[in-house]
Amino acid sequence: MTVTLKDLAAYCNVHPSTVSRVLRGKENLRISEKTRQKIFNASRKLKYRPNQTARTLRLKKSGTIGLIVPDISNPFFSRIARGIDILTYNAGYMLIVVNTDENQDKELHYVNELMSRGVEGLMIIPAQDEYSHIQELLNMDFPLVLIDRDFENLKANAVISNNKEASYKAVKYLCELGHKRIAALSGRRNLYSIKKRLQGYREAVKDFNLDKNPDLIAGDGHTIEDGYNATMDLLNLENPPTALVFSGNLISVGALTAIQEKGLKVPQDISIIGFTDSLYSEFLSTPLCTISHPLQEIGEKALNLLFKHMKATKQLPCEKVIIKTTFTVRDSAGPVNDRLS
Amino acid sequence: MTVTLKDLAAYCNVHPSTVSRVLRGKENLRISEKTRQKIFNASRKLKYRPNQTARTLRLKKSGTIGLIVPDISNPFFSRIARGIDILTYNAGYMLIVVNTDENQDKELHYVNELMSRGVEGLMIIPAQDEYSHIQELLNMDFPLVLIDRDFENLKANAVISNNKEASYKAVKYLCELGHKRIAALSGRRNLYSIKKRLQGYREAVKDFNLDKNPDLIAGDGHTIEDGYNATMDLLNLENPPTALVFSGNLISVGALTAIQEKGLKVPQDISIIGFTDSLYSEFLSTPLCTISHPLQEIGEKALNLLFKHMKATKQLPCEKVIIKTTFTVRDSAGPVNDRLS
DNA sequence: TTGAAAGCGCTACCAG
DNA sequence: CTGGTAGCGCTTTCAA
User: Which of B289, B269, B260 is nearest to B338 (CA)?
Assistant: First the structure.
């Protein structure tokens, strides 16, 4: 059926090992030009494809790297993945991307699966909070990089954003526009990134003496619907917020839907700032004031860090790379309407 | 280092083949409860991970499926990929997604790479026009499904959209709003989907006796920048179009940028309809009239078709599945402004 | 310059 | 119920 090295060898009347040497072409292996040509020609003629599985088994090197993300259809993750992919391709590796759907069991499943398949390194955007499987990889000194989400008590490589500062800055900005009741619409609360953003929010609320009503913190899911529901809860408060900071691409869509459905004008009725990376932010009915990430750069930094550890012959200390987010001022965040405050 | 079946066997004082049988657990293989437990316990204790590479080699089954897309960071592709991924996961397979960047050489590279790694089926959104590598797969009756882009003279399974009809309908809609100078902003012209859309456009232009100026057809790339440049070309025409139909998610962003930069109001100055699947369409400054795809469904249909062919014992005739797009009327397409026409 | 043999980790088949 | 053996396709070391 499929043609193997042995088939090629038989066809050429040489030994399989000879074919192997020719095709792997280490130049210093002396081989007669005649047989070399013979083998090359036969290889092309019979459409020989080396069996990577066999090579991997033999060499104990798969030439693959694994990337575990929550959901590749979310542009946040897919653009990071793309940044990684381009570099892996150039380096001659193949990237295998899998989705956890923010589910820890699936994450564990895929860690095992990818390890079973011999990936030489692993990059994970973990579903959190579970980390025993990651600790285990660390224990065996397996090349690993966490992306966007870190674990406080884990000595793992990580490429993360300055979430806390960014969040603080956003609230501060709204405060300077006169807002006192600022809501935070978060994603899943046990995510590192979300925790940090809420920290920044809380700190700013305290520093600027804003409304401390705990109901102003809403949301604990990652879907569009979660964003919609949490926003509705906020808007239905007795004293609804005059400004809203929301977190995440899907959450944003839900929030915008709710605001629109409520018939609220932005920023007259409510000011909004979003942690979001949509290409459409500036084209929205009110251009959206955003905190965005250099996604491709995140991917590249992460992969370079991974490569560094893959190449290292001795154990390297773990590194935490901090990525700067970008605060883009747009009309969706405006002065508070006195009527509301 | 990593623990193998042999290690486990030694640890348990049994033969490797016994361990194998226990762990693969075919119930009808009679094995004493005692050794079974012994092996299970040891397996957990030593954190045994089966080497999938070895299994694949032995079984000639990798449990993987390949998906070749142009660019996973484009939501159009990533959402199709996600639809596929969910089903492959449920079926116990692993999906390997690779990016071609609309580059045929990369596509060829990855076809070889994935075949080398023993994928059991392949789904391709081809970069086009080259198809000899696909023909080759067809010749060996390898399970294969094309997505979104077909080849006229290739008997391959394909899941494609009703591009021509959708495009025709969009132009017709604009025509009924009084537009006579309607432009088509396309993506890469040698893509099947784009060709079909242009066919629909041309047919409508003819049927409704619209302006046939060939300059009204613009664009031949897939990037944001391509969309921007082509739109600028259109808007700078001596007789610029009063309506514009554009194709593709990235192209759309470029087009919107150009329109905004030109200071044009939608739909007063120009009406627009987009082949796009953004979640933000209805939130844009003027909600965008769109032709959108049931992306998850496309993925699912494609995978089911692939599975059908993977399971078939004899050669099946190829199938062409046509997917219906959705035309969503929104404000961005409005009556022509008499001042302009 | 090429051939022979061993073995990566696993499973399937045949014995006992 | 369990052990032994062979072999998937490839590479590598040692011989010739």
Answer: B269
